Amino acid sequence: MATTMYAEEELYPVDTESGKANKSEASTTFEVYVSNYFGDHQIYLKVTDENGDVKQFHVSKEQAQSLAHGFDGADAYIGYDNT
What SS3 class is residue 3? Predict the structure, then answer.
C-alpha cells in the first residue's frame, strides 16, 4: 500500500465582521492524498474537525481537476495577500 500526501491545510471559520479567517475559533484540517489501499490509485479528501471527527471523501480525477482549476482561478483573481 502506498499513500502520497499532496496538501494539508488548517482552515478557519469566516469572521462575520471582516470576512477573513477567524483564528480565535477552532480550525478544521483538510488533507489531499492518493492511495492504492484498495488495489488502484484513488484521490481522497480527508477532513478532521475540531472534535477530531474524521470524514473521508473520494474525489474523481475530473473533480480534482475542477477543484484545482477553481482554486487556481481564485488565486489568480486576487493579486494581493488576503490573510
Answer: strand
Whole-Å CA distances, 11 to 28, 41, 45, 61: 5, 26, 14, 23
Domain edges within the chain: 3-77
Measured between alpha carbons, how far is 6 from 19 in angstroms, rounded to an integer? 27
Q: Are 33 and 44 in contact (CB under 8 A)?
A: yes
Of the pLDDT bands very low, low, confident and very high (cuts 50, 70, 90), residue 83 is confident
Entry pTM: 0.86
Query: Is residue 38 predicted with pLDDT exceeding 90?
Result: no
